[in-house]
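Below is the data:
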Amino acid sequence: MHPPVPKLSPRAKPEAAAPFLPMSRAEMDALGWEACDIILVTGDAYVDHPSFGMAIIGRLLESQGFRVGIISQPDWQSAEAFKALGRPRLFFGVTGGNMDSMVNRYTSDRKIRSDDAYTAGGEGGKRPDRSTIVYAQRCREAFKDVAVILGGIEASLRRIAHYDYWSDKVRRSILADAKGDLLVYGNAERAIVEIARRMAAGEKAREIDDVRGVALFRPVPEGYTEIAADDIDSPDEGAGRKPGEVVIRLPSCEVVEVDKEAYARASRVLHREANPGNARPMVQRHGDRDLWLNPPPIPLTSEEMDAVYDLPYARVPHPAYGEAKIPAWDMIKTSVTVMRGCFGGCTFCSITEHEGRIIQNRSEGSILREIEKIRDKTPGFAGVISDIGGPTANMYRMACKDPKIEAACRLPSCVFPDICPNLNTSHDELIRLYRKVREVKGIKKVMVASGVRYDLAVKSPEYVKELVTHHVGGYLKIAPEHTERGPLDVMMKPGIGTYDRFKEMFDAAAKEAGKKYYLIPYFIAAHPGTTDEDMLNLAIWLKKNKYRADQVQTFLPSPMATATAMYHTGVNPLKGVRRGAAEPVATVRGGRQRKLHKAFLRYHDPDNWPLLREALREMGRADLIGPRAEQLVPAVQPLTRPGEKKRPSRMAFKGQKFTTKGVPLPKAED
């Protein structure tokens, strides 16, 4: 049977909320605590704000009557820092932070980052590689008999055997490496409250095996019928079986380590079992143990979302950081999350694996209350809400028109290859929300900085007009990602024609509003399914449309994403993966080719011209080398002077300037 769905109702007579969850014994003493019930260990600086996972989980558990402490960015060289708050009565909750620690610490070229937006002062090096594993092991060293429960995005994305880009190999479930008791994945609010309540009542962590969104090591219970992952695409799969009696057997960790087709099949099955309405438990062998995954959590209702965001957050960093700036908090301190989840299904993105594809919405009242708190409690607030959105800007209140169809659907996207006719794409409630937010006293401007899903926006001219007239400030970032059908199909993104339609609507709305606004399109280099010719065509499109990309994104294979499975296996798991009959996908793995694809995006950078000239000649496109406006790169390098940076030759691009940053290039003269 599916695990039950606990309610997030408050416990009787919880203690008064602490000003901040304590990070020291002195703070515990001031609160009159002898011990914490739960200690959360995190790789981020502790910011008591609902955009930070440790704050949400900590405040939620506090509201249920538990005493919660925080150990933030501890010295991981020994177990001493993990003893700072004493022995927790129930468990350690361990998270790497708001990002996977390897994504946080390394670039797509595997170079270590010098900074960390989630650390005071933006300082790098305050968390270890694979933070969740290291922290969990230190917790176990500090107090051997205390349960360790893993959570957060790093745990979510590494819950089964997964390809790890930084070691270029398949790693086993993070639960095995961390030696944890339980792993909580996805939206963890219900699960962590249920676990805490049951452990407080005397249950052992490893006995709690019936909570949604939980993974643990246990044998397959009696009465279950196993389905091999190979059978998932069979027409008669599931015929004659009763619901609740089935578990899907994924290829074992040892098999997916060496068999790329098996890995691709496991990835396909995992994503097909992502709908909480019909997902079945899965099991994957790791050595002599079975890793059991319960179905994903049921999405929170609006009432539950409101309860989470209405908790008594201080909305500022812990006082221990003094005046040090925490860049991530500076970026989001005046932003408002109105929804969770994404039904776009972009294969390079991990949102769906973590938050799900069913949109979870807050009520208008809860959103308006938070804006008033921002106005009243945020230091230096100047009347501007920096963002109102979420994983996407414009999926608020969108859902399948028929709950029965939604519960039965296994498609990875509601908008690819076309927008599903069962999807309600109305922007009316979002427009109404925008208008109410603008009316809040003391609010001068409300920006939309979250990514706009433009294939949905073109369905609502009224929304585009509302957005441009009131919620754009000069530039709007948007992500077509590519122009060519090959990479777009494996990304599950709409064609560039949809972007063109949105741009027409955007420009018309800006003109009507009397504004000079620009769209800033984002593109990905070196994504699976992309050829050198695709990148060349994209560069020609950029030049023709007079765009220069100052900041470009090279594909980074994040754990468990579908595109990462493509990168590792060369197989397309969007299609059936059968032995010897899987659809191949071109991958960009070599350093030179990855640099070339990035260079095509920055065709205007003189540093890239030698590589581009060489590639264009190899591709038989030397006609694109020269000084004319329609040509891509000049035939000569810029002149240099001692002590000066390289600068463009006067004849590089006749009539074009290189001083404009982030906006369309001026028209070239003939």
